[in-house]
Amino acid sequence: MSFEQMLRKTAELPVPAALDHRVRTALRTMPFAARRFALPGMALGLAVAATLAMTVSMALSLAAAGAAETGVWIAMLVVVVYLGLSSVVALPLLLRLKLARAVREAAA
Q1: DSSP run (H or E) holding 47
Q2: pTM value?
Q3: Which of the residues 11, 20, 71, 88 could staple to 67 if both were Cys, CB 3.0 to 4.6 A apart?
């Protein structure tokens, strides 16, 4: 017994096979919506807030460890270096993804 047959037999209401076939066909042929981030301003705000939160948390942990005067500068330097390194790694990957998507759309 397949999983589909088991689901059909254990359903509270009987499901006609024709309706099941129509629903499955509709789901299989349904076009996917383009998934783009609708609000780039919100994405930028979230990135700035995350950077600020990282800087503040690192400054507080460094201040608790005894680097009270220079903790903020050390934290800012570490966060800026981290963001710089991650952008050096992430930007080529994002560009490759965008170019591959553009080639796919041009071919279609």
Answers
A1: helix 40-65
A2: 0.40
A3: 71
Distances in whole angstroms, Cα of residue 56 to Cα of each of 11, 53, 79: 54, 5, 10
Helix (H) or strand (E) run with residue 25 in it = helix 17-29
Token pair of 46, please? 């979230």
Three-class DSSP category at 76: helix
18's tokens = 């024709």
> Among 38, 59, 47, 32, which Cα is nearest to 83's?
47
Task: Dump pLDDT digits (tens) for 45-97.
Answer: 788 888 888 888 888 887 788 776 777 777 778 888 888 888 888 778 777 77
